[in-house]
Input
Amino acid sequence: MHVLVTGGAGFIGSHTVVALLERGHQVTIVDDFENSSPRVIDRIEQVTGIRPGFVEIDLLDEPGFRAAFGSIAPDAVTHFAGLKAVGESVADPLRYYAHNLGTTFSLLNAMKAHDTKALVFSSSATVYGHEQQPPYVEDAAALTATSPYGMSKVMLERILTDVADAEPGWHIALLRYFNPVGAHESGLIGEAPLGAPDNLAPYIVQVALGRRPHVRVFGDDYPTKDGTGERDYIHVVDLAAGHVAALEKLADVTGARAWNLGTGRGTSVTQLLAAFEAATGRAIPAVVAPRRSGDVPRSWADTTRAEAELGWSPTRGVAEMARDAWRWQQQNPNGYAADDCVS
Ligand code: WQD
Output
């Protein structure tokens, strides 16, 4: 099928585009490069031998996007475009709500105008908030979140569910990602955060590169296996495969339905540091720092529904995530900034 991928030049988006192309689907990327680089398109072609279609446009330009949508005429959409830095969202909530909701409204209006009602939406494990304990089950309790970023996902899941309930013919997959880490085995595409990384894995990699002096461990007194925060890290290639599985099952989805995309296993900060020391062969200095506000002690997925209904389960462990993240970073010390890929 022909899939329009918003934010397809981003970290998870680019890996999903590769997976879709390798499955024989046609892909058109829509991206404004606010958080990504045009070079990703070239790298996707290098990895797959296929150059995806591409339109550079801001989804907030609703008339322009609707016209572009009509010319692309996709069968389905995966919607990655959005702001996703938790700390930044706390500092600037209006920007996060306006952007994440506004881009989704623009997309939905274009889809309705062209009677395209198959959508895979990027949601997040942050919708589970503090009230629940892991393993998180999709419909166990009302959703809440501890940041404007997370709340934008809670709101959008509700909006998409209401739209699907109001009109027949919608098929919407709400995919709740846990913590994506790693890179494609080619080392040609990967995570390229702009500025200091908020997330742990890219920060560890920059310390391993010698770009930063040490990792700050945000708290070592949590009620966890070793006192540090536990998360469900999932290889980005497994995550991309989860999107393909959801897209290929969309026709069977009536309305909107959520699935966790995680491994079901909790890994602590200390354990992730050890995995990167093993993968890089380098000591990675770390110092204990105060807890970060908004952090939950533990988070991991119940994977039952995704395995049973999507026929999907992740295959890669933390060692492979660290190995593949390191290869990407070594081959691209400046991310996509300068095309100095050293093979
Ligand atoms: C992981 C663990 C930290 C940085 C967020 C979003 C989520 C998704 C992934 C978008 C925690 C600890 C972190 C550091 C540390 N993003 N940590 N030192 O917060 O679980 O999830 O990113 O979809 O939606 O909420 O990821 O990598 O920031 O933190 O000790 O420098 O590492 O306390 O225990 P998080 P993270």
Observations:
- The mean pLDDT is 95.
- The longest strand covers residues 118-124.
